[in-house]
Amino acid sequence: RRAEELSRKVPVPITVTMPDGTVLTDYKKKGDDSSAGGEKFMAWKTSPYDVAVCISQGLADSTVVARVTYSDYVSDYDPEEDGMGGGDVMLGEGDVHDDDDDTDADGADQSGSSSSKNKPMLWDLTRPLIGNVSRLELLKFDSDTDAKTTFWHSSAHMLGEALEHLYGCRLTIGPPLAGGFYYDSYMGDASASGSGADGSGAHGSSNAFREEDYKPIEGEVTKIIKSKQKFQRLVVTKSEALDLFRGNPFKEAIITTKIPDNSRTTVYKCGDLIDLCRGPHVVHTGKVKAFAATRHSATNWLGDTDHDTLQRMYGISFPDKKMLKIWKENQEKAKERDHRRIMQKQELVMFHDLSPGSAFWLPHGARIYNALIDFIKQHYWKRGYDEVVTPNIYNLDLWHQSGHALHYKDDMFCFDVEGKEWAMKPMNCPGHCLMFASAIRSYRDLPLRFADFGVLHRNELSGALSGLTRVRRFQQDDAHIFCREDQIEDEVTGALEFMKSVYTT
Fold first, then answer.
1. In the chain, at which end, N or C, are there fewer CB atoms within 10 A of the end residue's CB?
2. Does residue 87 contact residue 263 with C-beta atoms inside 8 Å?
3. Cα 152 from Cα 175, distance rounded (Å)
4. CA distance 228 to 285
5. CA pair distance 335, 355, nearest whole angstrom
6. pLDDT of res. 5
7. CB-based contacts of 28: which residues, under 8 Å, 6+ apart?
8. Left, alpha or beta for 296 (phi > 0: left; psi -120 to 50: alpha)?
9. What is the mean pLDDT of each run of 10 residues along the chain (505 residues)?
10. Which residues are paired to 424 by β-bridges?
11. Res 464: pLDDT
12. CA pair distance 320, 287, nearest whole angstrom
């Protein structure tokens, strides 16, 4: 069907403008002064890779992905027909009831809608262009965040393919991260009997990853790298997507809830893996030269402990083996500085399974803890903050009034008190507002600066807990400033100076 649609498209000449303002119109090599020129760039045929080759083959080979800004689309391009009508369903975008725009964190628009044609879009290097390009950027791994994100996104697909090969698991989501990627998979049925995809039982009887799994996974990804599997972008309807992923309840749930009826989305094929994805991706798996499985953990589908338990495998990859070697060396150095290692070695802090995510400050640690509090208190006194003490538990009515209950209740510790719902405070803000509202205030009283070392509790998932950086019980040097509008600038400046003074001490 899609091939038939594309066969009806009419190739027309297009122009491509590079970041330096150079306008390219044909396949003539850069630097070729021949007046005859070459074959014209054509919509539906010419890709960013073709343009890169016209500049240099080395540039084309080192480019990960293109960032394209269109000045206009050709008349026979339809974003909805091309599966570009919504967001990336694998990143939680494109919900049937979601009216948010499709601009990603870096400002690159991924929707392809007619209203977004003047915004930059990430574009597969070998995907044909569909209009005149006002700016074409060819992004490399070592110089652009979007290139790294694309590279690691592709690597996540390769990891997913390896997991399917080895464990026959059901894949869920596999996004890129700021420093790598992961893939969540449901291992319950696949590995409870101790068999891999071939039924050999070579991968153990546990339904959880172990460190012993890292080498087999890396070996399988290496095979995928060597096979240079192409990433193929395919446009499918919602019903076709449901057919493709029948038997995987996690993908079916994403398709059902995130893709509107009678619409289209995209999937990417890589070897024998087909995955829901907006893309873009690298040209083929051979672009990844080095891969390592880095760590694993347990999680839950949609982050809800009432849902199925999933196994998460993290990875890192690079376009050069030397980069991986340097990364591993830096990781070893980081381990030496890891606060979890230091606090255990120096007997500063301990944790216990009977109160997970809550630090036990040992005598040496308590001395440091109290010294830090005294240090902040000195700043409070110097800068005109009044220290207050507020309750640890409140009737949930307060959190409904503040809006926290609507958006944050699942992450709060709630309990019954005489038939009413109460909760431990996860932040100090509403308590300070109650104090401010407890008396009639004059403009002459402002600014008021309330500072609080109150104990806070947040019901973080057990799998997310990590040393002192992700906990369930903590205290922070927390303050709220109540001021007049004409005092805002001075108060913001003062707060920034406070922060600078602390971090430069």
1. C
2. no
3. 8
4. 5
5. 25
6. 85
7. 34, 37, 38, 54
8. beta
9. 84 96 85 64 97 96 97 93 71 44 43 65 97 97 96 98 96 96 84 38 60 97 98 96 96 94 94 95 98 93 87 97 96 91 95 95 96 95 96 96 92 95 95 96 95 94 87 93 97 96 92
10. 393
11. 83
12. 9
User: What SS3 state is found at 489?
Assistant: helix
Rounded distance, CA 244 to CA 175, Å?
20
Whether 125 contacts 49, CB under 8 Å: yes
Q: In what helix (H) or strand (E) does residue 239 lie, and over which residues does it extend?
A: helix 238-244
Greatest alpha-carbon span in the chain? 89
The helix (run of H) or strand (run of E) holding residue 408 is: helix 404-408
H or E, element range at 370: helix 363-382
Task: State the virtual CA torsion across 197, 200, 202, 207 in degrees, nearest 10.
Answer: 50
pLDDT recorded at residue 216: 97
3-class secondary-structure state, position 136: strand
List, in order, residues 6 or more apart from 127 with CB less than 8 Å away: 47, 48, 233, 280
Rounded Cα distance between 48 and 65, Å, is 9
* 271 φ/ψ sector (left φ>0, alpha ψ -120 to 50, else beta): left
Strand 264-270 to 273-276 pairing: antiparallel
pLDDT at 204 (0 to 100): 39
Query: Beta strand pairing status for 455-457 and 473-475?
Result: antiparallel
Beta strands in 172-318 (DSSP E): 176-177, 180-186, 231-237, 264-270, 273-276, 290-300, 309-318
CA angle in degrees (0–180, nearest 5) for 385-389-392:
135
Cβ atoms of 217 and 159 within 8 Å: the answer is yes
User: Dihedrals φ, ψ of 475, to 5°?
Assistant: -125, 150
Spell out the residues 6+ positions from residue 59 whose beta carbon is closer than 8 angstroms to its own: 52, 138
Among residues 451, 441, 440, 453, the alpha carbon closest in space to that of 483 is found at: 441
* DSSP codes of every residue in 198-237: TS--TT-S-SS--GGGHHHHHHHHHHHHHTTPBEEEEEEE
Of 233, 225, 20, residue with least CA distance to 138:
20
State the first-to-last Cα distance of the chain, in angstroms, to the nearest integer.
66
Integer Cα distance of 85 and 113 in angstroms = 6
Taking the C-alpha atoms of residue 314 and residue 42, their distance in angstroms, rounded to an integer, is 41
